[in-house]
């Protein structure tokens, strides 16, 4: 379970201060008293007649990858660097809908317990080895290994069977439906089995299955990708080269994009207006990422439902949204109420800002004079500003919250490993399937649940959701699950849901904003 929170919190490091833009006609920059930028603005689409096939697309990001081996990475942020090199069995599109990739079709059977994948034909790994069912089984077995980053995501898999050269059946203990999303992540990335034991794949991958190869690599500085010959899906390759540049300096990233040294980057709130002033195209959409406070319920008084409810009523979520420039829409459940795996009735008014009600609940819990606790969060300024706002909110109801800024690795270690921290504030990035996030926070052995919180109804619904045969069936179950979690004020305390900002020059076409916050540039093009 350790890796699950590392994924979530590392995403926080990259995204929590994000805010994005409106279309070019929207003059509002966000913030108190300003017109709010639009929440959903599409990026420029591809014009097939205008594609420069000899062009280079340059993306600039803030954090480097941890490995080029899908099993050796340590955070999901590295997925961005792996997507060009490794195709996944199933692909989630920008809207979060499953699409064929290395599996051209699939079906769930055996009363929801198996997923049968029918693979594309006549494709080879970059090293010339055949892509077939045996190689898929080898990859999935490797991903399930004890030391793999992907072990937790595939923990429900009990076995993988080769039906024939182009068909694989994956067996599960509880339910196979979640695999459709999971196999679109690193857990579904396919690498040539011939290079499994080559430690050099972490730096110079040669056994990929995707549209590009790594042609140059300078750690913490630059990755260069060039297309593979005769890729099975030629529509996905519209450039002669892709370059990912790395800089933790926000101003440097924005300036590079404005001046043309880079073609695209992501924005934080302070970068929004400068990006517009620099005549960049700015696009975004609401995402599944949420700004949350996770509580260790083994530490009194967080073990009392009324105290957890009081914290929810005490926090001014609209003020948090204002602090984020209008791009962190208030929310009270793990996912936005518009997402299929949520309860649409749980709107922000379900925990409307009400300090008076919060005080009443504290009195009911036997702590009418308040209490003290320590909140740890990342040591970035963006986190400190939000933490200080929460601190002021809680002070109004007599709760003293001490803010302790820590470096990201220590944040994980204290809360989830040592279980010695009262609460942490992170940005929870959406996982490949809702079941992963639910297990991490709500199930007794969840990594993001160091206090061992347990609710029998939630436990039962979580198992049923995993066993559902399709998304429609699981949606009804998740609706009940999140209503139960709300009624019990289960941790985490959700503050708001962020959108995903990107800025690019006027030559870039075909970039998509993914609802899960991932960075994928499949089909990106540059205008002649």
UniProtKB/TrEMBL annotation:
Question: Which keywords has UniProt assigned to this entry?
Answer: Signal, Transport
- Name recorded for this polypeptide: ABC transporter substrate-binding protein
Q: Where are the transmembrane segments?
A: none
The answer, when asked if DNA repair is one of the entry's keywords, is no
An annotated GO cellular component of this protein is: ATP-binding cassette (ABC) transporter complex
Q: Does the keyword Signal apply?
A: yes
Q: Where is the signal peptide?
A: 1-22
Classification via CDD domains: PBP2_NikA_DppA_OppA_like (cd00995)
Question: Which ranges carry the Solute-binding protein family domain?
Answer: 97-441
Gene Ontology BP terms: peptide transport
UniProt-listed InterPro entries: Peptide/Ni-bd, SBP_5, SBP_5_dom
Q: Name one Pfam family in it.
A: SBP_bac_5
Q: Which GO terms describe its molecular function?
A: peptide transmembrane transporter activity
Say which family it is in. Answer: Belongs to the bacterial solute-binding protein 5 family.
Q: Which Gene3D superfamilies match?
A: Dipeptide-binding Protein, Domain 1, Dipeptide-binding Protein, Domain 3, Periplasmic binding protein-like II
In terms of superkingdom, the source organism counts as Bacteria
The protein's matches in SUPFAM superfamilies, at most eight in alphabetical order, are given as: Periplasmic binding protein-like II (SSF53850)
